[in-house]
Here is the input.
Amino acid sequence: MRRLHSLEDLKQWQSSLGGAPLGFVPTMGALHEGHLSLVRMSLARGAKTLTSIYVNPTQFNNPEDLAKYPNTLEQDLEMLEELGCDAVFLPTADMLYPNGLKSREFNFGCLDLNMEGAGRPGHFEGMATVVTKFFEIIKPDFAIFGEKDYQQLCIVRHVVAEENWPVEIVPGPIVREPDGLAMSSRNLRLSEDERVSAAHIYATLATATENWKKFATVEALEKHCADAINAVPHLSVEYITCCDQRELQPIRELDPKVPSRIFAAVQCGKVRLIDNLPLF
Ligand code: AMP
Here is the structure.
C-alpha cells in the first residue's frame, strides 16, 4: 500500500493508475470494521482504492472533542495494508488549508436545519469544505460514505448534485458491535460502564421500530425511546427524531409509504454518540 504524504505523492500515484476506476473512502482514522467495510466495498467494485486519514478541524464545533479524538495511526495503516487498500492519503492542515482553517459557504437546502445541523453549528460546512477539497484534488470516480452519518451522506449527495461533481456517492450500511452499538471511533473513549450503557441506544431504537404499529403517534414513539434511554445510567438524549429519509424533515404520521428513519444523538458520559435506523 502506498502512503501518500503530499499532493506530489498523490499526483505521482494517480498517474501510475492507467485509467483504472478510483474509489475514495474519506476517514478521520481510529479505524474500525465500519470503515473497513467501506474500503472492502470499493475494492469489491474492482476499483483502485484510496483511503484518507485526516482529522478535519473545521468540522469540530467542540474543541474537547477535537483534542480527544482518538489516534491509532500505526494500527490503521496495518489494517488497510492487510485489506489490500491500494493507497492511503495522509494530508496535513497546511496542505488542505493553505490560507488558514476556514470553511466554505454552502447551501444545503433544508438538509442541515435539524439534528446534527442544529446541534453542531458549523459542522456540516467544515465537513463539506474538506470533502469538496478532497474531490477537487483526487477526482475519484466514486466515494463511499457510511449510513452511520446519514445526514452527512444526504448533504454530500446534495452538494455533489448541486455543484455537478462527476463523482458517484455510494452509501455503506452501518456496521455494529455484536450488542448492536454502531461502531464509532469515539467508542474508544467510553469507560467500561459507559460502554455497557451505550448498547441500550440501539436496543431501544430497534425494539421501538420493530413495534412501531403499537405507537399512536410519532411523538409517542419518540418519547418512549427518549424516556427509556434517559433511564439508563450515563445516557442523556440530545434528540430522538423521526424524519423522512430523503429531505430529512420530521414526519407527522407513522406512514410506511414514506420511507423514514429514526435518528438519535445521545450523550454517554463525555462522549456524544449518534445512530439511526429505518423506521418501518
Ligand atoms: P469518520 O472516520 O467517523 O469520519 O467516518 C468515516 C466514514 O466511515 C464515514 O463515511 C462514516 O459514515 C463511516 N462510518 C463510521 N462508522 C461507521 C459504521 N459503524 N458503519 C459504517 N460506516 C461507518
